[in-house]
Amino acid sequence: MGAAHSHAWRTAHRFFDLPLTPELRTLAGRNPETLAAAAERYGFAGTTTRWQDVVEDPEIDVVDICTPGDTHREITLAALAAGKHVLCEKPLANSVAEAEEMAAAAREAAARGIRSICGFSYRRTPALAYGRRLVEEGFVGEIRQVRAQYLQDWLADADAPMTWRLDREKAGSGALGDIGAHVVDLVQWITGTPIEAVSGTLATVVPTRPAAGDMQGLGGKGDVSGERQQVTVDDTALFSARLAGGVLGSFEATRMAQGRKNAMRVEINGSSGSVAFDFERMNELEIYDATAPAGRQGFTRVFTTEPEHPYAAAWWPTGHGLGYEHTFTHEVVDLVRAIGEGTDPSPSFDDALHVQRVLAAVEASHDDGSRWTAVSPTEQEQDR
Amino acid sequence: MGAAHSHAWRTAHRFFDLPLTPELRTLAGRNPETLAAAAERYGFAGTTTRWQDVVEDPEIDVVDICTPGDTHREITLAALAAGKHVLCEKPLANSVAEAEEMAAAAREAAARGIRSICGFSYRRTPALAYGRRLVEEGFVGEIRQVRAQYLQDWLADADAPMTWRLDREKAGSGALGDIGAHVVDLVQWITGTPIEAVSGTLATVVPTRPAAGDMQGLGGKGDVSGERQQVTVDDTALFSARLAGGVLGSFEATRMAQGRKNAMRVEINGSSGSVAFDFERMNELEIYDATAPAGRQGFTRVFTTEPEHPYAAAWWPTGHGLGYEHTFTHEVVDLVRAIGEGTDPSPSFDDALHVQRVLAAVEASHDDGSRWTAVSPTEQEQDR
Amino acid sequence: MGAAHSHAWRTAHRFFDLPLTPELRTLAGRNPETLAAAAERYGFAGTTTRWQDVVEDPEIDVVDICTPGDTHREITLAALAAGKHVLCEKPLANSVAEAEEMAAAAREAAARGIRSICGFSYRRTPALAYGRRLVEEGFVGEIRQVRAQYLQDWLADADAPMTWRLDREKAGSGALGDIGAHVVDLVQWITGTPIEAVSGTLATVVPTRPAAGDMQGLGGKGDVSGERQQVTVDDTALFSARLAGGVLGSFEATRMAQGRKNAMRVEINGSSGSVAFDFERMNELEIYDATAPAGRQGFTRVFTTEPEHPYAAAWWPTGHGLGYEHTFTHEVVDLVRAIGEGTDPSPSFDDALHVQRVLAAVEASHDDGSRWTAVSPTEQEQDR
Amino acid sequence: MGAAHSHAWRTAHRFFDLPLTPELRTLAGRNPETLAAAAERYGFAGTTTRWQDVVEDPEIDVVDICTPGDTHREITLAALAAGKHVLCEKPLANSVAEAEEMAAAAREAAARGIRSICGFSYRRTPALAYGRRLVEEGFVGEIRQVRAQYLQDWLADADAPMTWRLDREKAGSGALGDIGAHVVDLVQWITGTPIEAVSGTLATVVPTRPAAGDMQGLGGKGDVSGERQQVTVDDTALFSARLAGGVLGSFEATRMAQGRKNAMRVEINGSSGSVAFDFERMNELEIYDATAPAGRQGFTRVFTTEPEHPYAAAWWPTGHGLGYEHTFTHEVVDLVRAIGEGTDPSPSFDDALHVQRVLAAVEASHDDGSRWTAVSPTEQEQDR
Questions:
Q1: Which pLDDT tens digit goes with each residue over B294-346?
Q2: Positive/negative CA dihedral, D86, D92, D97, D100
Q3: I want to staple B193 with a disulfide (CB 3.0 to 4.6 A). Which of B243, C191, C232, D270 is the partner?
Q4: Is A372 in Cβ contact with B205 (below 8 Å)?
Q5: How crowded is residue A382: how many other Cβ atoms within 10 Å of its Cβ?
Q6: Quick one: pLDDT at residue D382?
Q7: Which of D140, D272, D296, D311 is the mutation pick for testing B, counting most B CBs within 10 A?
Q8: Distance from CA of B11 to the nearest CA of C (A)
């Protein structure tokens, strides 16, 4: 994440007209031995092992938080209190309570002109942003159904080693929170409609894994000892969701889908059309126009590299695709513009809080035999 | 269905070596005015408006039942009692109780050398039959997860007219029973594992539809009057399933998937590989071999027209695809061979009964707030 | 071919309304030992080892000629002279001179109400017939360029055995005449424009092959002796073509395209759109509409199983594909209708003759260092 | 190109371990009014309107030449003479004579430790680099045939305006030189085999175009006056090629392929396998293994984002694709490493010279009625 974020901060103003020019001032990290090299590589002017130094530095305007989820709350609250704009990676926090506190702080800060954004960067994929625009413009008509999957396979191998991502204390959640969160956010954003209830099931298909010599996550095998450790988070999450207004959606987040590397798929079916996306082909959007002349209907593969597509005009000629890191660069673009224009960027912490409530409701439903469970806001929010 | 079945009976022995040669003797139907023309077109020697004539005819060996589900039980029982082999279209019956009675009769008849088969013809798609063989041979390793969808779109239009298929009294069930049944059967057959429990949700996304002048089903628009009628079956079914041994599967059957014409999809993910199929490309099977050399892994599009693929050697040279009706022809091939060899064909009525129990459990789960619900066999069966 | 043709004759009137009902009367063949079994399997009432018996039989109306190319001329001329309608497989003949004689005979017979058709059956693929209709209706606008390939791979293995298809004396030509002929016909038919000149290159990439014990063709390995025999036809043909009006096309026919099983591809690019087809996905047509709203343009995958698509309404519901043999069934449908209606079916022998002239021009160009070579009709034709 | 190149120079050392760290010192350009802003945006420390300043600056080690082709020779010769390493964009020059002179200079400079590289950056697409490795390792066996296309559509619209790229004096060549050059280079590089002879045809399908108010190229419409101007380069090039050893390839470069945005396709067919690529899906390589078990053969879609794939390990987790600009970043990586290691990078000027000779031979063949024409090196080279 550090590599992707710093690349975005270095690159955004080189391709987009921004009201302000980012500078990478201080990289905060825990390991003093590797920090200087990282700062050199990523282009930061200085380093610190105390994140408080960043929050307190009067020269710093924006704090970008890529730390594990259990530290998000503390850093974010301090940064907002100190008047820094905040980009906080997803998930916003490891619990709904923490997320509520952060969202409240962001609301309060916004009143002071301080901006907050949560890092659901996939929203900035041109194809998905274009899909959302089509839905908003009525291209699909009345929404009939939603389908969302996030399929990976790096845990299908029972001997893939244990990592901190599979430890509930550190990671908070498994496939549900890590990748399921993305498709929850995307569906709500593209349809413009919150999820109100869910019925879900979680599973840990491979319940123990070899201990890794070092716990570096994401498939790094490291030195593996003979002992097996307990996986304490889900590796598979299946759930149905009901959106405000009644539309049903099927959701799946799994790391057991052998052969699917990063198949983050969203499909919106409507009365007059559909849009469908798969991140494994991130430069394409499939659209179906049910109002096209009979005989000529079918899914159209739109190669979202035309000037008409969001973000695309800043880059290469038609037909030349973008990569994963562009989603972060676009996130920076939108944040910096919001700061410059004095507007609130999206996704807000409230958006991220709602995602977290959906995930919590899936867990609650799972614990209740998968019964339909409401995604309830707090009373305080209901009063607003 | 009549067109497809009669084509299969006329064609099977022209391409496959069969121990017996089918003859189309009597077409039974309700409408005396159209019956003769239908028999002429389909190649039957005679006709009757009393199905009993077929069952009683000593010259007839096989009864092929394509009538609506509410008549299956009576005809089947009579035919089996009369010593006829029976091919009964799916769903086996409109209720579990009826299906149980039929399965019991089939078991009893089998003891007398009378064969029964239920028409889940998709099993005879070469790509799916090959996928099953791969799973059976261990290609995917230990199964980790299952994914099955049957997506159609002919009800996404709110003004598609009412038909008997949308009337619970006549059709018994909607998307769940009509198309969901196929993917339930396929998953159980390919994995060789029954579904033991489900958590499901049904919906009728478009609850009223224009009355049709005539009720002919499957999108036929006919004359539509102004009045709207109540749809009394589901048009969308979402459910999770737990297979014996614990594997989870996500299932979806819907007629709201705008743009998806006949996307019957099954994907089996395992520890060492995957197989994936979509009926919209019925001559292809996607397979993933996790044991292939690093760097060369990926989904392989197998064009299942090689001599090694089930049924394919009887047809055309490599690379020349088959169509929908071949699934029926292959069904006839397998039935006639079973009759000739004195073996029991598949899917048995017991297989079909279990499918029906799964569907019933989905409905029960839906009525219970989508709670996990066991697919319970009767005590009698448990004793067997 | 016999299996496919007889299937078509048995099946056409079962799905289409025809003015006449075909009956399979006499199967002519050379091997008296296998003939009776073949007639039984294919559904013929009788057999003969003298093709003349067929031509002379007053009960026979249509002669369907599936013999090797070197016998087409004699049988066709006799059949037409005897007042039989003729379906002659492609290539029409093994030389332009023979084809000219046959085309002249067909023209003369047409004046007497006798119909002739050459078996370029791919024209009857619904997707291709629909593509042609779109081009005719102006969907692609002014044609800018044409691209056609027929890629197979069964000769990429240097040890695939010798067959009669690789012997110039028997087969006349190799990849060019056998598969290249199809794409030449399709391009001329879809664009409605004849090819006027070509620049081509032929090659025999694998010049010797193991002798097969029996020479049965198309990849059948049979018993292979140690000796290698000379391949006397091309296995690869590359050519550029200029259509009347000046449009350029690139053509390729090869049996060296490892992994391509039956990739017969045609793409027409125009000023306002494109159509593209690949027989490996024969139920799909890709269409591109350059007049669609900016941002929504892309290739649309039309699943040509809708009632609006040629031939499709006679078969299955939307989304249920057809197979290779349907192209023959549709050919029979069109021929029988033409006979019933007293019209001339297409492709005519003149169409087939022009294909043959194009192939001959490719060979002439190859012999002349690939120089552009005119496809010249005879003086007689120029006078007509 | 300036945007892509400067991005690469800024980014390479952030993701790859390089022996030297690039700094962007001086941007040379013609327009003093826009130069400062461009330098600011692209991250250059200074600017000049005299390219000689760059060549003469003792602080500068590398000169990156992105100017139009008619200036390449002069700048390159000066830079090499001054002891600067040179990255020169393709085409190396506008004539074979110029390219010969440059290649000779590069050879001479190499003896002094000065490195030269020509910007055929597509070689650095991970999928293509991996495809080459597979061919080199024998994956496809003996090469049987080659197929290469570069399809674009921005000139299919007859009213797309005139640009300098369509003016022979400025651009030297059209589709052949601009995009055809890429696939010529790729085929030679992947197969490791030079093209020895060609038979080709060029065309200008749309011979006149509206004059543009400003001539900015690549589809920019600008202000279009009523007058139409003559297009003096080809917009379509078709040719066959014979590689050393005799393998045939079919080539096509066109800007008339309506709907194809950047379909740069290369396919290598061999005795035991194939590799196929399309830049519209630049993160995928299709591979076919003819030695796989019968029944399991088919094209495998390799998602070239695994650590085993060239360049991929430096970027994102498996399944997260790269974009167009990465090809330039990888080019810089390879050049800087070559400089650091004292080796000669690829493609050399000699490689680029041979590409240019192939293009010249295509033009010569076209002028000679498309006859096969040798790609002849000069006598001097033959002696080497």
A1: 999 999 999 999 999 999 999 999 999 999 999 999 999 999 999 999 999 99
A2: positive
A3: B243
A4: no
A5: 8
A6: 55
A7: D296
A8: 8
Decide: B278 and D290 in contact? Cβ < 8 Å.
no
The closest of C279, C290, C268 to C146, measured between CA atoms, is C268
Q: Is D171 within 8 Å of D164 (Cβ atoms)? A: yes
Cβ pair C36, C45 in contact under 8 A: no
Domain A143-270 has CATH 3.40.1710.10: no
A235-269 b/e with 16+ CB inside 10 Å = b? bbbbbbbbbeeebbbbbbbbbbbbbbbbbbbbbbb
- What residue spans define the domains of chain A? 2-121, 143-270
Which B residues 183-202 touch A at CB under 8 Å?
Answer: 199, 201
Closest CA to B155 of B210, B96, B219, B107: B219
Contact residues for A91 (Cβ-Cβ < 8 A; gap 6+): A69, A72, A99, A172, A173, A177, A178, A181, A352, A355, A356, A359
Largest pairwise CA distance in chain C: 66
Within 8 A of C295 by CB-CB distance, chain A residues are 130, 302, 306, 308-309
Give the number of other Cβ atoms within 10 Å of residue D380's Cβ.
9
Task: Provide the ipTM.
Answer: 0.94
**Fold (CATH) for B2-121:** Rossmann fold (3.40.50)
Rounded CA-CA distance C337/C343 in Å is 8
Query: pLDDT per residue over A26-69, tens digit each?
Result: 999 999 989 999 999 999 999 999 999 999 999 999 999 999 88
- CATH fold group of domain B123-322: Dihydrodipicolinate Reductase; domain 2 (3.30.360)
> Measured between alpha carbons, how far is A125 from A285 in angstroms, rounded to an integer?
10
Exposure pattern of C252-264 as b/e (b: 16+ CB <10 Å)? bbbbbbbbbbbbb
Residue D316, pLDDT above cutoff 60 = yes
Phi-psi region of A14 (alpha: psi -120 to 50; beta: other; left: phi over 0): alpha
Same fold, C2-121 and C122-323: no
Beta-strand (E) ranges in C108-247? 116-118, 143-151, 195-203, 208-212, 224-230, 236-243
A165 compared with D22, residue with greater pLDDT: D22
> Cβ distance A72 to A65 under 8 Å?
yes
Q: What percent of chain B has pLDDT over 70?
A: 94
pLDDT at A222 over 50: no
Instruction: Find the closest chain A residue to B274 by CA distance.
Output: A258
- Among chain D residues, the shortest Cα distance to B319 is held by D298
Q: Does A4 touch chain D (CB under 8 A)?
A: yes
Cα separation values, C111 from A131, C74, C383, Å: 60, 20, 19
The class of domain C122-323 in CATH terms is alpha beta
Checking if the pLDDT of D66 tops 90, the result is yes
**Shortest CA distance to B268 belongs to which of B126, B121, B142, B127?**
B142
